[in-house]
Design the sequence.
């Protein structure tokens, strides 16, 4: 499989005037195209920081990040934004839907930053919602939906731009087991049918066991 | 994308109704004040009444005379002699009209006391100013030369003297003299101060001829140029006259003169920033003062908006994080926020426009400025649009920049 994203000896240290906090140290991770990886570790061990670095939302203080063989360390805000827009989708634990926008408007957000007509954006957003089984709720507002439905909207938003990499930060963390199962099923289907690469942070050993590979982190370091 | 921004902007405005109300009130109130002030200035500088050709004429309205040792000086409106000898004779002028300031006149008619304003003019006055005649015609230079007791009155004077009935050929008496009405004109705004009056009579009907010998007095002159470019030639010629060609009747008393041929703006500049001692009025200073004051006035609601906008960022940090995560660059977010702010200011603008119409209508009909009709015309409308855009951008740029600088991870955690 081709290499999707590669972390080389990544470190992340947060510095304030008095305190220096090491969040990640010597992390090496190759994510290959089409993989479904879970990242596990106790709370505060650096999982989310790792996901943010993978998603180009945060910059490491040491090491290098390559996306499809290209070093991204020196890229500016606009270039990173373009890579995120075209290649990466995010699913967050707390959904992060914009309450003032309808479901379909939320799903359209990634497409706003591409050169697409309004009609084309709408068509793609509806199709993404169909894929997560929410086509009948396009004009609802997020607060009118259950937690599981909101997370499905978030997944639709993450996949509407057809990214090659999906980063999910505890996507089932706020859901009951039934809804959590629904979300896992959608992610697995995306990985198998669309060959979307998925990196998922989870606390749940059972769900992690369903992925191809588990990447464990403890106190900011990877566990071999 | 714009539709999405507009939709979101309206939602955000409805989310915090009190903030929105304060913002809208600030914008619309400021706009109302600025629109009313600019309508006033517009009316003053671009008159629509008899002075509508003011772009093509200059006003000689002041004269300073100084003694040979320069210790003693007198300053007032020019006298008839000065204007007759040194302004009427300007070769570069198309026409020159001499007229007095407006004065109070008292009449007693059928036991009623009537107080009106009267102006003494020559015949050329009616050729430079475009009065709207409701009856009859103006008096002419022959009437002025022959001292005919004829008068043009305004609609307001016709109502005062004749209860609004036709006045042509009828007589009006004031200050012990009787005049035959030869014309009735529409009312003139008080702000058109070379034209405003209720009664106009020939200068030669003055009770005394002493005015003919006065250097200083109560007269002004309107100097009409052949075209707009001619104004500079007139100024140049008049400056030469002032500097070397003034005929002083008593050179031992006064032998130095200063005056100016001013446009409407220059005249106001001379009055407001008070420089009578040089030929050119300081319009630059006046404009700087006016624009500075307007800018300061706009700055207050803009700062208020900036504060409100910055505090709104706190509640929108999650949205900013999402947009950044899904591909919005800082520049795109700045654009979005400015669009939202321009929408808010445009809403304030609409309220401000409606408010301006109402306020100008109330001011116009209140008689605060006699016979003035204030309009939010196309020019004022354009000022308004410019002001709104200025507001929108001014109050949006800083919060937008601050917003765009948020780190996406921090923003997603709700930390602005």
Sequence:
């Amino acid at each position: 499989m081709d290499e999707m994203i590669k972390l080389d000896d990544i470190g992340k240290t947060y510095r304030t005037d008095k305190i220096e906090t090491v969040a990640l140290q010597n992390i090496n991770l190759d994510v290959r195209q089409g993989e479904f990886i879970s990242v596990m570790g106790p709370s505060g061990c650096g999982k989310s920081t790792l996901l943010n670095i993978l998603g180009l939302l945060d910059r490491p203080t040491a090491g290098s990040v390559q996306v499809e063989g290209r070093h991204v360390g020196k890229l500016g805000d606009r270039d990173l934004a373009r890579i995120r827009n075209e290649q990466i989708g995010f699913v967050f634990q707390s959904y992060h839907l914009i309450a003032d926008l309808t479901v379909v408007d939320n799903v359209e957000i990634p497409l706003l930053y591409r050169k697409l007509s309004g009609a084309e954006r709408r068509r793609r957003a509806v199709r993404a919602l169909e894929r997560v089984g929410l086509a009948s709720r396009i004009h609802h507002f997020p607060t009118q939906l259950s937690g599981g439905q909101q997370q499905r909207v978030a997944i639709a938003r993450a996949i509407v731009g057809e990214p090659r990499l999906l980063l999910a930060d505890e996507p089932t963390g706020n859901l009951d087991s039934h809804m959590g199962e629904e979300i896992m099923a959608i992610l697995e289907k995306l990985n198998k049918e669309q060959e979307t690469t998925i990196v998922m942070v989870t606390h749940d050993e059972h769900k992690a066991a369903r992925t191809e590979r588990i990447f464990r982190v403890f106190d900011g370091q990877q566990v071999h | 994308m714009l539709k999405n921004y507009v939709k979101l902007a309206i939602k955000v405005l409805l989310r915090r109704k009190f903030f929105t109300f304060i913002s809208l009130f600030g914008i619309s109130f400021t706009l109302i004040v600025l629109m009313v002030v600019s309508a006033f200035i517009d009316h003053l500088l671009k008159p629509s009444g008899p002075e509508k050709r003011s772009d093509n004429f200059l006003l000689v309205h002041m004269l300073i005379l100084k003694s040979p040792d320069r210790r003693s000086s007198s300053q007032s409106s020019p006298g008839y002699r000065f204007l007759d000898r040194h302004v009427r004779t300007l070769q570069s002028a198309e026409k020159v009209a001499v007229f007095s300031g407006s004065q109070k006149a008292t009449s007693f008619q059928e036991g009623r006391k009537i107080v009106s304003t009267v102006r003494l003019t020559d015949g050329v006055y009616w050729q430079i100013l475009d009065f709207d005649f409701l009856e009859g015609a103006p008096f002419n230079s022959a009437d002025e030369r022959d001292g005919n007791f004829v008068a043009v009155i305004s609609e307001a004077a016709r109502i005062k003297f004749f209860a609004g009935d036709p006045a042509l050929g009828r007589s009006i008496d004031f200050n012990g003299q009787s005049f035959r009405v030869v014309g009735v004109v529409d009312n003139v705004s008080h702000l058109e101060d070379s034209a405003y009056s209720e009664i106009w009579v020939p200068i030669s009907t003055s009770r005394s001829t002493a005015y003919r010998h006065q250097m200083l007095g109560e007269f002004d002159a309107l100097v009409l140029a052949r075209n707009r470019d001619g104004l500079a030639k007139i100024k140049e010629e008049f400056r030469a006259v002032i500097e070397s060609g003034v005929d002083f009747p008593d050179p031992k008393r006064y032998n130095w003169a200063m005056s100016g041929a001013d446009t409407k703006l220059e005249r106001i500049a001379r009055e407001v920033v008070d420089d009578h001692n040089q030929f050119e009025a300081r319009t630059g200073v006046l404009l700087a003062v006016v624009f500075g004051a307007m800018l300061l006035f706009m700055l207050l609601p803009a700062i208020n908006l900036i504060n409100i906008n910055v505090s709104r960022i706190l509640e929108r940090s999650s949205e900013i994080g999402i947009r950044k995560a899904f591909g919005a660059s800082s520049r795109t977010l700045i654009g979005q926020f400015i669009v939202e702010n321009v929408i808010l200011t445009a809403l304030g603008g609409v309220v401000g426009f409606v408010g301006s119409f109402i306020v100008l209508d109330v001011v116009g009909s209140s008689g605060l400025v006699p016979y003035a009709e204030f309009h939010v015309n196309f020019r004022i409308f354009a000022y308004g649009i410019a002001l709104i855009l200025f507001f929108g951008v001014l109050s949006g740029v800083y919060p937008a920049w601050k917003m765009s600088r948020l780190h996406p991870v921090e923003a997603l955690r709700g930390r602005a």
User: Anything to note?
Assistant: Residues 3-223 of chain A form a domain with the Rossmann fold fold (CATH 3.40.50.300). The helical segments of chain A are 47-54, 77-87, 103-112, 118-131, 147-159, 177-193, 205-209.
